[in-house]
Fold:
Amino acid sequence: MDPSRYAELFLTESQEHLSAINTSLLELERTPGAEAPVAALFRAMHTIKGMAATMGYQAVTEIAHEAESLLDGVRRGAIRTDATVADLLFSSADLLERTIEATTEGHAAPDAHEILERMRAMTLAARATPPRSMASVRVANSDTRVSVTLEADTPLKGVRAWMIAQKLATLARLIGTEPPEGALQAEQFDRTFVVLLEGSAAAEPLLAAARQGGYVEAVEVTPPTASATTVAADEGDAMLPRASQPVLRASGAVTAEFSVADVTAAGAIKAQRHIRIDLRRLDTLTNLIGELVIARGRLQAIAADRKDAVLDDALSHASRLVSELQDEIMTSRLVPVWQVFDRFPRLVRDAARSLGKDVDFVIEGKEIELDRSMLDEIGEPMVHLLRNADDHGLETPAERRAAGKAPSGRLRLAALRDRSSVLIRVSDDGRGIDRARVLAKAKRTGLVEADVEALGDDELFRLIARPGFSTTETVTDLSGRGVGIDAVATRVRQLGGTLELRSEDGRGTTVTARLPATLAIVRAVLARVGGETYAVPMTHVSETLELPGDVRETVKGREVLSLRDDVLPLVHLRELVRLPRQRDRINHVIVLEMADRRAGVLVDRLLGQQDIVVKPFDAVKDGLALFSGATILGDGAPALILDVNSLL
Amino acid sequence: MSHTVLVCDDAIFMRTMVGDILQQAGFEIVGEAETGIQAVEKYKQLRPDLVTMDIVMPDMGGIDAVREITKFDPNAKVLMCSAMGQQALVVEAIQAGAKDFVVKPFQPSRVLEAVQRVLG
Structure:
């Protein structure tokens, strides 16, 4: 068998188990002595060991094996989970992760010597000396001897031998074995063992039964003889295995979700089989469907000119199929956020520990799904936000007590669905952002007029999201190098999303990223300005309007639009792209909406809605921070995608 | 008609591997289970000719699952999948009614031999 076929599977599944290991370790640390996390840890280590052994990953197998032995001691109650044991387990989990990475990437495994030795020492110290006793078997001259030789490489030969003895015992009464049962199971024989059966049994069935036992190289049946021998044994007791080692009973609490899903769908079992696909294949498919969507747009434009009913009919059929195909491909790229989020608790814990803070971290909405590549991209910004909260947001226990709060801070990471977007929200109940300090610095650097007295959330956000704007005096390892929230905001914008911030003095900070659930293809409103076409993602469009020219008013020097009971600030797209204003009888307006902010964008002409394929776009940095990407239209012409966040 | 098999293991890796080995030998994988409880439920639904059973699984371990399955069907043919170092557990599984065992890492020929012995 070629193990490389399974290398990918091994890696993916090991990572899942590693994240389960970290979760369980945190749980064990919170509630020392709890059984459920120990059982889960044991199982995860055990599974990794089995897989690694199959792959021939020696170093991984060894670490998992020692950790498993240590955990077995914990499970049996021989080792107590104090801080030393917990730390050792944490270190071994880290070592295991690094070793798996190194091994699967073909690098040399990290030095495991010290941790392995510490685990061995702990396991050994806990191992009680097994009880010893004397056993002897009287062999009468009327007994039948069955001598069985096993193959050289028989795995678990002790059990194999015992099993063969049991099989033979169904044919004649078993008197005993050489070596005795305990020693037999403990593999205290080379390759040959003897089964003694009472009376004279027919040789043929015995031979057949023994051969049926598996891994049998030779069997010899010796009928009763005249000589009587006593086989004496001074061996580790023929202990009943049931008494000596507890059976692993994993707690049902650990993975309760497993049992529900599959059991009910009896008929659908075959349909549920999964295959794993290289993400690059899915990317290629995504690009192709993107091209297909563009081609469809082009065909629709042509058909609209022809006004041919038959062509329209055929095209609308093809068009539906393209949409379905697009949905299927996009759905196949979705993965639950826990695949990335599950490594955060460990990270938060380590950070909180190093800062001397108590943090109560919860993750909500783990099952919410996001495009695989987006999830990969969003992981790092989220780490940044969590570290920010750990570092700046949350106070030390003493500070919290002084402020009348519970000593441990609450940190929450939540994923939720909102129409076609996914919101990812990091919130803490810490001190909030120091507005006075931000304002003072902003005034010093001339970002804000000297007479401004207070900052709203949006201004606050705009200020701290400026590259290099930081009020932190001390730079820590964790964050505060002045590349904080602006890096996060940029990344989120590149993904077609927006970032929002709410902060309340003394009550905490909440940062929300709104992301499109699927990447690459979004529905957009197309509009014409000058000679160019622009696209506005539908996520932020609440409506489009065509209004007579006289609805515009000027309030406090700003142009606004009265819309029903609301007054919307107006933005001229012509001005933004540095074209002269145009006088029009009709106002073509796209109404944008984001959280509680709204604005109207004036364009020359509205072209309608269309699926657009977002193409990578790297001109954002120095050019106008007005566009988040670009797309190719049906006629092959490019169009820029407006960044709604920067317009509001 | 090919024999039907229910593969029980909490690791997809192992299920895939056992499934591949058996499928290539002409067996039909009719179901998979990730936990002992699932294994028992699925056995009752599917009545497969053969069950491969991992010892260590969540919810209900493989040994208890074997016990439940043989209680339901004394003729059930269960092949235990164990790792090195699990002597005592394998012994208990066989006492609970498993017919034979294979030891990880799996060699396809050894797995198929064991399957033949069990179905024998």
